[in-house]
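Entry for the shared binder. Reason: the reviewer on the internal report wants the predicted structure included alongside the sequence.
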Amino acid sequence: MLVRRLLIGSAALAGAAALAACGSGDASAKPTASHSPSATATDTAGAAAVTWPAPADAAASVKAAGLPMLGAEGQALHIHSHLDILVDGKPVQVPANIGIDLKQQKISPLHTHDTTGIVHIESPVQADFTLGQFMTEWNAPFGKDKLGALKTGGGNELHVYVNGKEQTGDPAALKLADHQEIAVVYGKAGQKFPTSYAWPAGL
């Protein structure tokens, strides 16, 4: 498989650039202001809607996760996991370009290209990557009792499932593996969550 290199399109003349994706990229998406997930609006049922953009400084978030910024996607390890985050039963969109510095044309081995929730693990060396590292790249504190600015308590719980099976221990230490369906579920007990993902052809 050919190593995918960083591609700078004609938009670079205007100060914008896109990275090559492995089949599911969104070249037009750009990072937005950095902040942790927060309740920003209230719907008619009284549940808070959560917005959670990609960090503006991708390189700093990748460094905080203990990962390097690369000049191209690695191929020694090339797998994909899918992440769903639900807060009070409502999905939180996983942004495009987590782990990607469009301006500098650098990319982490752990990144997203689009808003499908597919997490790309494309490393030049064999290594383990964790859900906690990805959440750090997303600039979101994450652990047994916290999801960004959201805390457990007062009837709110945090559960993590892989392919429908609840995980125990520190969720940040969850090792990412190929074709996992990871569901991070925050809110009252008994919420529904996805147990599988319909993977696109080629992934």
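Summary line for the report: The first helix runs from residue 58 to 64.
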